Amino acid sequence: MDVTKQIYRAVVTALGLFALGVQYILGASDGAMLLVWTVNYFSFFTILTNAIASLALLLPLAAPGSRPGRYFARPAVRTAVAGYIIIVAAVYFLILRHTWDPQGWQLIADRMLHYLMPALFVIDWLLFMPKGVVPWKSVLAALLLPLVYIVWTLLHGAATGWYPYPFLDVPRLGYAAVLTNIAGLFLVFFSVGLALVTIDRLLGRIRSGADAEPTHSR
């Protein structure tokens, strides 16, 4: 299992870094100032989440004894990242995929970041993470990253007039509508986190029950 896990995580990490690199290069070659594009690039929650997911796969594999490696190996952290990337896929599929028509390499990077990586990370979460150990309080702790992201997005948008997503576009929608959208998003983050911890607990009980079954000689 360890070898399978290592190979799986190495392959998925390579795919994630490839997709992130392609997306960055495509934006940088679009004629935008490099510094502006770099800041905007990391201001997309999709990019931020895929980067974190890639680190969560890479660091426990490449540097398991390091502080970052141990941090990303924690089941609570991996569960939070799984929640983030599930929401990335769901929001894109339900809301954002109709807002543009990517082609060529842009289409490849788009599908990898929004569909392939979320699916592969959740598979890793299901197969390779210990189950039944994620505390309920981690659901609230996992809201910290979205909170920091929203604060950054509103401050950055107020300073530059640029917003990464249409449902956060203050000039177009107004603060009342945007804050309502944000409240809805936080409800989604909380609900997905709660669902994942519940699944973790249920799978933990199932595995514990299976391990506890006596073996019979034939």
What does this structure look like?
With 218 residues, the protein is mostly helical. It has helices spanning 2-28, 34-41, 45-62, 67-73, 75-96, 104-128, 138-141, 144-160, 170-173, 175-212. Helix 1 (2-28) packs antiparallel against helix 3. The two termini are 27 Å apart.
Structural class: mainly alpha
From the N-terminal CA to the C-terminal CA, the straight-line distance is 27 Å
Write the H/E string, N to C.
HHHHHHHHHH
Number of E-type strands? 0
Helix content: over 70%
Oligomer: single chain
What overall geometry do the principal axes of the alpha carbons give?
A: globular
Largest sheet: none
Number of helices: 10
Question: From the alpha-carbon coordinates, what is the Rg to the nearest angstrom?
Answer: 19 Å
Unreliable runs, pLDDT <50, ≥5 residues? none
Q: State which percent range the strand residues make up.
A: under 5%
Mean pLDDT: 94
